[in-house]
Amino acid sequence: MKRLMISCGLLIAFGLSSSAWAGKDDHVLVQEAAKNIVTVSQAAKMADETGVTLTGQITKHLKSDHYEFKDASGTIGVEIDDDIWRQAGLKVGDHVRLVGEVDTHRYKPTDIEVISIEKHHH
C-alpha cells in the first residue's frame, strides 16, 4: 500500500469513490474473482491486486479486522472490514465464500483484502 498517498491525491482530482483508491475498482476485481476460483496456496502466489474467490473457514480473529482463513491447501490472513463482517453476520468458525483482492507485502506474507463475503451452506 505504498502508493496510498499518491493515489489519494489523484483520486481527489478525479472525484472517484473512496473505495477505488486501491487501484482497480471493486467491480473489476469482482469480475476477475469470478474467473479466479482458487485455493489458499494458489492465492498466496498470485500478483498484487488480483481478484480471487476463496471458499473455506474463518479459523481465528487475529487483531482488529484481521482474521485467519483456511481451506484444504493451507491458511492465509484475510482483512474483513467491520461493516462487511456485521452485514454478513459472521463469527469465527463459519464456513464462507469470499471475494477479495490479493495484497502482497514486502516484509510479511500475502493476505487477502475482502470485498464481499457470505456464509457457505454445506
Characterization of this structure:
This protein has 122 residues and is α+β, with helices and mostly antiparallel strands. It has one domain: Beta Barrel (OB fold (Dihydrolipoamide Acetyltransferase, E2P)). It is 26% helix and 35% strand. The chain contains 4 helices and 5 strands. Strands 1-2-3-5-4 form a 5-stranded mixed barrel. Strand 4 and strand 5 form a beta hairpin. It is globular and about 30 Å long. The termini are far apart. The N terminus is likely disordered.
Give a short overview.
With 122 residues, the chain is α+β, with helices and mostly antiparallel strands.
Number of helices: 4
Shape: globular
Largest sheet: 5 strands, mixed, barrel
Low-confidence stretches: 3-20
Feature tags:
globular; disordered N terminus; 5 strands; about 35% strand; 4 helices; CarO-like; five-stranded mixed β-barrel; signal; OB fold (Dihydrolipoamide Acetyltransferase, E2P); BOBF_sf; NirD/YgiW/YdeI family stress tolerance protein; alpha+beta; about 120 residues
SSE map:
Blueprint: H1 4-14, H2 26-35, H3 40-43, E1 51-63, E2 66-71, E3 74-79, H4 82-88, E4 95-103, E5 111-119
